[in-house]
Q: What sequence folds into this?
């Protein structure tokens, strides 16, 4: 379990290259699983504290950006006693090398986990080139 | 004269006092029971403590919270994303498996009144102080 523990520390990004956000909030890089299936690609991101209204997904050319906004919940009249994790927004950008069918992208959020299903474009699905050995 | 005697005069010259304070703060929370994961934040008021932890993707039924005296234990697990035929991972960064976290609170907890809410992947546990331990105001009568 010790190696799992090391991976779990939230990775805080340093200043983003493309310009900072106007809100002075912490920014974290969410841990992500990417699964390539036969007909689509599934991106699963851990974003605790985020629900479906707080997520922004944009696909520009071949870049997929996921952004989750988190409202920090501070119990009133309590003093902070121990902090093992910080609270902030989540952002991550991926460059897709596959042709994605943009009209059918689906995204769901459950219990702070974002699942994006990117169906592969028609062209890529059917194009299968048989490779033969050189005679 | 001991270093600590100087405190009587309002001087806190004891060089170990700060060290002990930090050491106590670190060890009482971290040793020997707590694991690295999951990370928790703890907020404390006079008669209540709030423990929050980020557990995305864990089903509320899979979280097991138990309280005994001053100790809070959070246990749970998250399933591994199974791959079917023909599927492959491009990346696998998310954790899965079982986790246990034990924490000691600064006061005894009223176990019957503990409330836990799990929303958006964040677990929020409210731990009220045990009734028997609440400070009682004692009035001073003058004769």
A:
């Amino acid at each position: 379990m010790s190696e799992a523990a090391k991976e779990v520390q939230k990775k805080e990004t340093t200043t983003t290259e493309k310009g900072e956000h106007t809100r002075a909030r912490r920014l974290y890089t969410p841990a992500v699983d990417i699964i390539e299936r036969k007909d689509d690609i599934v991106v699963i991101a851990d974003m605790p504290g985020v629900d479906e209204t707080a997520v922004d997904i944009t696909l520009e050319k071949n870049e997929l950006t996921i952004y989750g906004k988190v409202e920090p919940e501070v119990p009133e009249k309590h003093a902070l006693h121990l902090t093992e994790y910080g609270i902030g927004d989540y952002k991550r950008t991926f460059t897709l090398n596959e042709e994605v069918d943009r009209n059918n992208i689906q995204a769901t959020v459950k219990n702070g986990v974002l699942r994006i299903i990117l169906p592969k474009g028609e062209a890529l699905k059917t194009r299968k080139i048989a490779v033969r050995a050189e005679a | 004269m001991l270093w600590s005697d100087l405190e009587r005069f309002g001087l806190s010259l004891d060089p170990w006092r700060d060290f002990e304070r930090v050491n106590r703060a670190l060890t009482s929370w971290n040793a020997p029971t707590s694991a690295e994961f999951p990370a928790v934040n703890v907020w404390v008021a006079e008669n209540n403590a709030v423990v929050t932890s980020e557990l995305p993707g864990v089903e509320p039924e899979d979280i097991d919270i138990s309280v005994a005296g001053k100790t809070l234990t959070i246990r749970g697990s998250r399933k591994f994303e199974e791959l079917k035929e023909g599927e492959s991972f491009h990346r696998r960064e998310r954790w899965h498996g079982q986790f246990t976290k034990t924490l000691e609170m600064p006061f005894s907890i009223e176990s019957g009144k503990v409330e836990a809410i799990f929303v958006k992947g964040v677990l929020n546990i409210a731990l009220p102080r045990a009734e028997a331990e609440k400070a009682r105001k004692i009035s001073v009568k003058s004769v």
